[in-house]
Amino acid sequence: MNRNQALDAYRGFVMLLMMAEVLHLSQVARAFPESGFWAFLAYHQSHVEWAGCSLHDMIQPSFSFLVGAALPYSIAARLAKGQTEGKLFAHALWRAFLLAALGIFLRSTHSPQTNFTFEDTLTQIGLGYPFLFILGWRPPKWAYYALGAILVGYWLAWATYPVPDPWAKNNNLGHFFDVWFLNLFPRVKPFEANRGGYLTLSFIPTLGTMILGLIAGRWLRESANLKRLLITGAAAITAGFLLHVTGVCPIVKRIWTPAWVLFSGGLCFWFTAAFYWVMEVKEHRKWAFPLLVIGMNSIAAYLIAHLFDAFIYSSLKIHLGEHFFAFLGVGFEPLLQGAAVLTLFWLMLLWMYNRKLFLRI
Question: What pTM was estimated for this model as a whole?
Answer without folding.
Answer: 0.95
